[in-house]
């Protein structure tokens, strides 16, 4: 065996699909030539003649050239929620996205001799933390890597059951097929135990966004939808603007004098969007300090104000909190049935709207304050899944090499197909929203305080909305401050112990 972002700017829709299908015909065994500085060109390097044309280099994994894993079967543990999916094996290549999964798997098998087997768990009750903990205790090496929920990978990290990816041979998280934001903001004291990138879409799939009904916007607000896209482009898309437009819609459709899920609203929300509003202001429950350790940073004036403003907005009769809704209507049907102008969503939810005949658009999570320099897009921690490698490995270098190749190939298969799936529904093409999608993915907020459940603040913030307490932030924070600080101290100590053991 041989081992040695921007997410490729993602040239939207049709251009990206072209790269997907181009890969299908890329069957040559001979790799491009390598220059003396390690870069790869489209052809042989002429060392005797001066180069008169600029040389275009292509970044490839170090193991790309001549890599042969001799029909090795890579075992992947998928510890997902019911909203997850298998992105390594598919028996259905009829859709653009499933075809991308098929193409990448075929390339891995035919070019590099890697096959895949997966153990799939798609329930909230399954714990990858428990499963891999049992594997560790038994000394087993049954799984090469895992794609698992944020809450699982955080526990696996402090329990010492995950490999430090910084020490994993043949894997280089600085390469463009790895998510630089996730890697940077998940690196604790120089060690990285989980990350994301083009190897899987199950982090981007749970980035927050807003879907809006274009026909309703024109009818109720009386403006063209370009107004919204211009606000986004000019950096003026804020919570206040969302509230302003949402206020145009509030209807008791069945005239029973009760506003419930059977009626029409300007905005629908989930209680998880309270912590998303903290993130939307640029805040976090926990931030990494100068030494790379976790530090409690939730209690700021801006965080408190953003939470209070959001809850006050949600208390209006034109806003429906879907976490507390009554009336029996399924939350997906509310938007599908033209009962909501805006819905605070995440990208996975857009799949439910693909068959809509009513045109809808996508906007980024709004700024919490107008004076912010940029947008910030929260990740729904209850569903987002990250790449990680169990500590016990038969051949850690082999796992690193396979993951590196998967990420590299995913950048020209999974990622472009994901954009196409998101933008192109059964009845509509929403290319106007392409800029919004790029903003969402480029401004992801990684909050380790959320993933490690520090102070149970995620739950406590949600409770402020559900209990209609816009002024409850300060007392809530103080009540859980001591356990939060103790939690952080323990996590930092556990990381130090891991590093000392590994050294």
Which helices and strands, and how do they pair?
Blueprint: H1 13-24, E1 72-79, H2 96-112, E2 114-121, H3 128-138, E3 145-149, H4 150-158, H5 180-185, E4 208-213, H6 214-221, H7 226-233, H8 239-246, E5 250-251, E6 264-269, H9 273-280, E7 286-288, E8 294-296, H10 301-314, E9 319-321, H11 331-336, E10 340-346, E11 360-364, E12 377-378, E13 385-388, H12 396-410, H13 414-423, H14 434-442, E14 444-445, H15 448-451, H16 457-466, H17 473-502
Parallel strand pairs: 1-2, 1-3, 6-9, 6-10, 12-14
Antiparallel strand pairs: 3-13, 4-10, 4-11, 5-6, 7-8
Helix pairs in contact: 1-2, 1-13, 2-12, 2-13, 3-4, 9-10, 16-17
Fold and architecture overview:
- α1 (13-24) runs parallel beside α2 and α3 runs parallel beside α4 (150-158).
- This protein has helices at 13-24, 96-112, 128-138, 150-158, 180-185, 214-221, 226-233, 239-246, 273-280, 301-314, 331-336, 396-410, 414-423, 434-442, 448-451, 457-466, 473-502; strands spanning 72-79, 114-121, 145-149, 208-213, 250-251, 264-269, 286-288, 294-296, 319-321, 340-346, 360-364, 377-378, 385-388, 444-445.
- The chain is α/β, with parallel strands linked by helices and 503 residues long.
- It contains 17 helices and 14 strands.
- The longest helix is centred in the C-terminal third of the chain and has 30 residues, at 473-502.
- β7 and β8 (294-296) form a beta hairpin.
- The two termini are 28 Å apart.
- It folds into two domains: 13-26 and 53-201 and 385-423, 3-Layer(aba) Sandwich (D-Maltodextrin-Binding Protein, domain 2); 206-381 and 429-502, 3-Layer(aba) Sandwich (D-Maltodextrin-Binding Protein, domain 2).
